[in-house]
Amino acid sequence: MKPWTIGLSTGCFYSRPIFEVLEEIRGSGFESIEVCSFPAHLDYHNREDVARAGELMRALGLLPVSFHAPFAEKIDITALDPDARAAAANELIVACEAAAVMGVQNMVLHPGPERSGRPPEAEFLDRMRNAAENLNTVAERCNELGVHLLLENMLPHLLFGHINDMLYLLGSIRNCEVGACLDTGHAFLARELGTVIQKLSGHLHLVHVNDNRGERDEHLAPGEGHIDWPRFMGELKDSNFTGTLILELSLRDQESVSGMLERARHARSYLTDLMGKLD
């Protein structure tokens, strides 16, 4: 099989300006990245900074495979209040436009808000319809910009936190180019990792690779938690996946940029070794 590209999310350095870490990321051997939208890392409202980030990536030979859309409780495309809903959709569109300026290929989006729990059924259905309507608006703008929209499976305690919710929303989007991003840590916590690849077959374009011990979203490197990576990689191969694997790791307390990148290189080697055993 042709090895999958393994990239790195800049989210591990979310509290540092992106301009301070891109050169070290490239120097560590990574050629593909996902760009984090946290304001302290990159203010996607600032078009000068966005353009400068894109120029720096091109100069370094870094390919921005994806841009992670902002997520917060206030960015709620399911909101019952129409003004709040419109503001949330506009915020996502601004981020999509920033992605296009940087030359990003894919926009990764949480399809629901960072809100815990499931409301009463009538409200849940209203929120699902609101999400579908706004996702169509965002997808249309992404299509105009030449950016592929990918929906990411969310943590199980959040609204729309299960794969069936995401599949419903994917089916509600008129633009057939919209696909899925699988977060391995989220799926493992939802106890859905064993079935999710099959369910997302035909939609899956990107995988956020991270591990945990089954209790919380730790963003450990593959092999540091309880996910069965040989099995997962085999299932991914059997699904004829042709996309990119993005390491989405957390920086440890007091860890340096170089220390984080050393762990990321080890994680990349671990996955590369597993890929070699799939042939």
Helicity, in percent? 40-55%
> Averaged pLDDT, please?
95
User: What is the N-to-C order of secondary-structure elements (H for helix, E for strand)?
Assistant: EHEHEHEHEHEHHEHEH
Distance between the termini: 6 Å
Shape: globular
Number of helices: 9
* The CATH homology group name: Divalent-metal-dependent TIM barrel enzymes
* Low-confidence residue ranges: none
Number of strands: 8
Q: Kindly estimate the percentage of residues that lie in beta strands according to DSSP.
A: 5-15%
Strand order of the largest sheet: 1-2-3-4-5-6-7-8
In the CATH hierarchy, the third-tier topology is known as TIM Barrel
CATH class: Alpha Beta
Number of domains as seen in the coordinates: 1
Structural class, by secondary structure, is alpha/beta
Second CATH tier, the architecture: Alpha-Beta Barrel
Largest sheet: 8 strands, parallel, barrel
CA radius of gyration is: 18 Å
Please tell me about this protein's structure.
β2, α2 (47-60) and β3 form a beta-alpha-beta unit. 43% of the residues lie in helices and 14% in strands. It has one domain (5-276): Divalent-metal-dependent TIM barrel enzymes (TIM Barrel). α3 runs parallel beside α4 (121-145). It has helices at 22-27, 47-60, 82-102, 121-145, 163-172, 184-189, 193-199, 229-238, 257-276; strands at residues 5-9, 32-35, 63-68, 106-109, 148-152, 179-183, 204-209, 244-247. It has nine helices and eight strands. The protein has an eight-stranded parallel barrel with strand order 1-2-3-4-5-6-7-8, surrounded by four helices. By secondary structure, the chain is an alpha/beta fold. It is globular, with a radius of gyration of 18 Å.
